[in-house]
Write a sequence for this structure.
DNA sequence: AATGGATATGACAGAGGTGTCATATCACAT
DNA sequence: ATGTGATATGACACCTCTGTCATATCCATT
C-alpha cells in the first residue's frame, strides 16, 4: 500500500524506516504510535515520510503485509502436509512453527499481539484481506482453515461427527490462539517442554472422569 | 479512587458524569477517550472535573470498580451455590448470568471488551486489585476461581485427575471467556439457544471418535 | 551546461488535548 | 451581615501530533 517512491528507495533507508516503524508499533501499538517518533528514530525528515506513505494507517498496513509474508515462509512446509498428518499432530507442528517464527521476528509477535487493541474501524476487513489473524498467523488461523481440517478429520474418522464442524472450528481456533499466547509469553521464547500436550489430551479425551473406581 | 468531592455531588450530576464517561470509554476505549469529550457531554466545566478526579486514569478506575459491583450483584446467586452444582452446570449458569448482566448494562460490556486494548501499564495489577477480568467478570473469571472449582470437581470424582489443575484452569478460563464473547456478540444480546451446549459436550467427552464403526 | 521530472526537506498552520490557577460563588455558622 | 471553608468555573499556558507546501536538490537526457 505504500507509494511507489518508497520501493525505489535504497534498501538501507527502507530498512531504517520499517525497523523504526515495527519497533514503534511493537512497543505502543497502533493507536498510540506516533509518526513523529518513527521518523525521529529512522532519521528521515517529516516531508519524506509523506512522500512514501499516505499516513500512519498506510504504513501500518505495509508492515502487516510484510509480516504475513514472513510468517508464510515459516509455516509453508507444515501447511503443505496438512492432509497427511493426524489432526493433533498438525496442530502441534503449527504451534512449534509459530514459535520458531516468533524467535526469528520477535517484534512481529508484539505487533500482532497489539493488533487487536487497535481502534481501526475496518480492522476486520484488513485482517481478512491480509489473511492475518491476531496471532499474526496467516491463512492458518482462519476459521475457514480449521473448517477444512475438521472436515478432513471427520472424513478420515479421526474425530467425532456428532458436533457441527463450525462449532469445532470455533473451539480449535480459540484454543490454538490461546495456546500460542501461552507458549509465546510464558517462556519468554525459551525452549519449553510442550505444555500443550496436556491441553491436547483434554481436547482429545474430554474432562469427564471415565474411570470406574 | 475519585476524590471525596465527587461523592458529595448531587446524584443527578454524578450520574451525568459517570454516564458520559461510560459512554466515552465504551465507544473509543481508554487510550483514545478524551476528558474534553466527557466533560462536554456531561456538561460540566473543565475545572470541576479535576476537582472530582485526579485524571483520566482515576476516572476510569472509578468506573471499573462500579462495573465490578454491578456484576457481582448479577453473579452472586450463582456463585453462592458453586459447591452444590455439577461443574458444567455451574459454568452454564455463569454464562447465562453474564448474559443477563450484559443485557442490563450494555455499555459495561463494551468497556470490558476494550479493557484489554488499553495501554495502561499497570493494567494487570489493576485487574487483580479489582478482581475484574477482561470480560468484566469479577472474581468469577480469575484463574484462582477456576482452580477452586476444579479441585472440588476432582475431589467429587467428576473430572479426571490425570491433568494438572492449573492446566485445566487455563483451559476452562480460555473457553469461558471465548464462549462469553461468542454469546455476547453473535446474537446481539437476543435470547439464544444455548450454543455452548455443543462446546461443553466437546469439553466433557473430547473430540476423538470412539465409536467403532 | 541546460532542462525537466522525480525526490528531499523542514518550517508552519492548525487541530485537539491536558492540567492549573486566579477568581467567583455558595452554604452555613456566628 | 459577615466571615470562612468548600466548591465552581473557564481562560490560559503548554504539549504533542499531523499533513502541507514552497523551496532546494538530484540525476538523467539532450
Amino acid at each position: 500500500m505504500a507509494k511507489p517512491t518508497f520501493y525505489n528507495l535504497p534498501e538501507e533507508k527502507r530498512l531504517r524506516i520499517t525497523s523504526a516503524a515495527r519497533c514503534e508499533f511493537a512497543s505502543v501499538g497502533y493507536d498510540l504510535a506516533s509518526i513523529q517518533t518513527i521518523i525521529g528514530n529512522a532519521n528521515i525528515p517529516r516531508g519524506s515520510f509523506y512522500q512514501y506513505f499516505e499516513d500512519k494507517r498506510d504504513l501500518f498496513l505495509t508492515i502487516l503485509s510484510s509480516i504475513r509474508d514472513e510468517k508464510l515462509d515459516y509455516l509453508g512446509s507444515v501447511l503443505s502436509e496438512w492432509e497427511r498428518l493426524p489432526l493433533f499432530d498438525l496442530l502441534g507442528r503449527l504451534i512449534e512453527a509459530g514459535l520458531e517464527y516468533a524467535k526469528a521476528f520477535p517484534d512481529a509477535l508484539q505487533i500482532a499481539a497489539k493488533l487487536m487493541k487497535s481502534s481501526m474501524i475496518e480492522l476486520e476487513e484488513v485482517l481478512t484481506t491480509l489473511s492475518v489473524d491476531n496471532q499474526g498467523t496467516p491463512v492458518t488461523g482462519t476459521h475457514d482453515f480449521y473448517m477444512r481440517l475438521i472436515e478432513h478429520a471427520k472424513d478420515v474418522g479421526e474425530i467425532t461427527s456428532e458436533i457441527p464442524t463450525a462449532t469445532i472450528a470455533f473451539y480449535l481456533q480459540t484454543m490454538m490462539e490461546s495456546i500460542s499466547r501461552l507458549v509465546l509469553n510464558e517462556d519468554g521464547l525459551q525452549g519449553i517442554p510442550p505444555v500443550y500436550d496436556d491441553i491436547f489430551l483434554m481436547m482429545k479425551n474430554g474432562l469427564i472422569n471415565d474411570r470406574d473406581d
